[in-house]
UniProtKB/TrEMBL annotation:
Signal peptide stretch: none
UniProt catalytic activity: L-prolyl-[collagen] + 2-oxoglutarate + O2 = trans-4-hydroxy-L-prolyl-[collagen] + succinate + CO2
Species of provenance: Charadrius vociferus
Protein name: Prolyl 4-hydroxylase subunit alpha-3
Fe2OG dioxygenase domain: residues covered: 363-470
Molecular function, one GO term: iron ion binding
Keyword Hydrolase in annotation: no
Subunit structure, interactors included: Heterotetramer of two alpha-3 chains and two beta chains (the beta chain is the multi-functional PDI).
Alphabetical keyword list: Dioxygenase, Endoplasmic reticulum, Glycoprotein, Iron, Metal-binding, Oxidoreductase, Signal, TPR repeat, Vitamin C
EC annotation from Swiss-Prot or TrEMBL: 1.14.11.2
Length: 485
């Protein structure tokens, strides 16, 4: 039975990577469902063989941290792309309350089970996030009610578990009457539970005392800053071929803005580019952002991913003088020296030719390769240091003057780079390189470069970052006569 379930879910070999619901169910199955089968009564005849085989691979299977992270990723996708929880549970990626086409339509729809929804809701519940726990536990309760009486040995939860957590979530959210109703339903299935019976008495007393019932809709916790800005919503910008997304402008603004934008072949005065000029698309004037199409070949992209793959580790962020993991950056990364492979060395030469900047050590950092998996994202941040104590200054080559970010893969949906204050975003364009200046000519940080990596809704996003520092660029990007420039 378990094998048939797995086989049905993964008829398309790529589906487990591209569809976030399949990715979540795969992680959950490996972490909890499969061990439940291994240790079930049905497996007693083959117990020893099953246990031995399981022990051999146990260390390689996802852990509790991986499963909880996958659940948080689904909630992040729900928030940022305003997805309906009921729709997600049914395998549909549609914005709540709209009839517009889905943001992503997988080749084969995959739905979540009641136990799957319960686990997502339980992760939110354990974090005290009742906005999300109520939505997911409501879905779990509805699905458990439909299948009540039929036992699934792979499940760790039940209708009673879902009702118990949902009732307390509503109580914490201020809706005491609904908490009472759900607790009474719980006692219908488990009348001997004294803890829930005491809760019922407590809820009744609170209502008799006239305790107000919350009628205001639950508000989403401030866990992400990407819901309303940058990652979805604005209309497409008319400059081909990247279909950059831009916020609404007045007719006068639009005319002035578009007159400076366009696509061109660039040699930058460099003989390296004479025979094969760079395909430059000017995305934005302020901040200065350009997209170079076909900057890297498919073979080069695969080589770089292959070189970085064995060294990938959870990405860290600068925090004061230290670097640490953070929930607002979910990805894995590795660093490649230019001596790692001729492909890396050739890529660095290409970056130097296109930007006109000096990339020799210590004027630039090693190439950082980043993989954003299920719901991977990076909330709004600056690439340049905003504090004199930042670890970026350890290179003793000044601040990060410029960023080159190369898209090494395509994604099905999501994953755009959103510039928050400037109100535009650039979708993932495979093999293209995005370039922008982090610092103004006077050395001050450019506040308009605040940007974010939108969550990957479907697919596997790979990028390579090259950060170039200000020392060594004095005659390549000189100061202006205007100190404010």
């Amino acid at each position: 039975r378990f094998y048939e379930k797995v086989q049905a879910l993964h008829q398309d070999p790529k589906a487990s990577v591209e569809n976030p619901l399949l990715a979540f169910s795969l992680i959950k199955r490996l972490h909890s469902d499969w061990p439940n089968v291994i240790y079930s009564d049905e497996a007693t005849e083959n117990t020893q063989a099953l246990h031995d085989g399981f022990k051999e691979v146990e260390q390689e299977l996802p852990g509790a941290e991986d499963l909880d992270g996958a659940a948080r990723a689904l909630m992040r996708l729900q928030d940022v792309y305003a997805l309906s929880v009921k729709g997600m549970a049914n395998g549909v990626f549609q914005r709540a309350g709209t009839s517009r086409p889905p943001l992503y339509s997988p080749g084969r729809r995959v739905s979540l089970s009641a136990d799957d929804c319960f686990h997502v809701g339980k992760v939110a519940y354990d974090m005290g996030d009742y906005y999300h726990s109520i939505a997911w536990l409501e879905e779990a309760v509805g699905l458990f009610r439909l299948s009540y009486g039929s036992w699934n040995p792979e499940d760790r939860s039940s209708l009673e578990d879902a009702l118990d957590h949902l009732a307390f979530s509503y109580f914490m959210a201020g809706n005491i009457s609904h908490a009472l109703s759900l607790s009474r339903e719980f006692l219908h299935y488990d009348p001997s539970n004294q803890r829930v019976a005491r809760n019922v008495a407590k809820y009744k007393k609170l209502l008799e005392m006239g305790t107000a019932v919350s009628v205001a809709p639950l508000r989403r916790p401030n866990g992400t800053h990407l819901q309303s800005r940058g990652c979805h919503g604005p209309p497409p910008h008319p400059c081909p071929p990247s279909h950059t997304l831009l916020g609404p402008l007045s007719p006068q603004q639009a005319q002035g803005h578009l007159s400076h934008l366009g696509c061109s072949y660039e040699t930058n005065g460099n003989p390296y580019l004479l025979l094969q000029p760079a395909k430059k698309e000017m995305v934005q004037i302020q901040p200065y952002v350009a997209l170079y199409h076909d900057f890297i070949s498919d073979a080069e992209a695969e080589t770089i991913k292959g070189l970085a793959g064995p060294w990938l580790q959870r990405s860290v962020v600068a925090s004061g003088e230290k670097q640490q993991k953070a929930e607002y950056r979910i990805s894995k990364s590795a660093w490649l020296k230019d001596t790692a492979d001729p492909v890396v060395r050739a890529l660095e030469q290409r970056i130097a030719a296109v930007t006109g900047l000096d990339l020799r050590p210590p004027y630039a950092e090693y190439l950082q390769v980043v993989n954003y998996g299920l719901g991977g994202h990076y909330e709004p941040h600056f690439d340049h240091a905003t504090s004199g104590k930042s670890p970026l200054y350890r290179m003793k080559s000044g601040n990060r003057i410029a960023t080159v970010m190369i898209y090494l893969s395509a994604v099905e949906a999501g994953g755009s780079t959103a510039f928050i204050y400037a109100n535009f975003s650039v979708p993932v364009v495979k093999n293209a390189a995005l370039f922008w200046w982090n610092l103004r000519r006077n050395g001050d940080g450019d506040g308009d470069t605040l940007h974010a990596g939108c969550p990957v809704l479907a697919g596997d996003k790979w990028v390579a970052n090259k950060w170039i520092h200000e020392h060594g660029q004095e005659f390549r990007r000189p100061c202006s006569a205007d100190p404010q420039d």
